[in-house]
Design the sequence.
């Protein structure tokens, strides 16, 4: 039998789980798409472009994406502080897959919602 510690280490080295868990939330994908469309963007501009995300959540999302090398952060030594974000080459290489996923979701959304409602109705019986 595998100890719990060993199972966790196996999961951590799994490329799919490891990588997708880092950018697989709704805000990370949206940030990547916005940066791909806008180029270099300041933090406050990102807040305006994605109005329904809190600055705290956006900040955490940006840190995660930066830690994984998907975005680059540039801090200018001025007052008030000026910080800009842009996609790296590896971040840019992810964009076509996000676009494909977006197109797939748009194509299949009605069917998925219909199935969800059908299942919810069954569970209410």
Sequence:
């Amino acid at each position: 039998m595998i100890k719990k510690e060993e199972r966790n280490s196996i999961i951590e080295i799994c490329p799919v789980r490891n990588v997708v868990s880092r950018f697989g939330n709704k805000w990370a994908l949206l940030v990547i798409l916005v940066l791909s469309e806008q180029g270099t963007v300041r933090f406050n501009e990102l807040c305006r472009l994605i109005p329904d995300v809190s600055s705290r959540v956006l900040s955490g999302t940006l840190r995660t994406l930066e830690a994984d090398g998907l975005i680059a952060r540039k801090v200018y030594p001025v007052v008030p502080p000026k910080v800009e974000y842009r996609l790296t080459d590896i971040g840019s290489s992810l964009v076509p897959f996000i676009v494909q996923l977006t197109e797939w979701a748009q194509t299949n959304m009605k069917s998925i919602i219909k199935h969800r409602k059908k299942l919810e109705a069954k569970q209410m019986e």
Remarks:
- The chain has one domain: 15-124.
- Strands lie at 41-42, 71-76, 82-87.
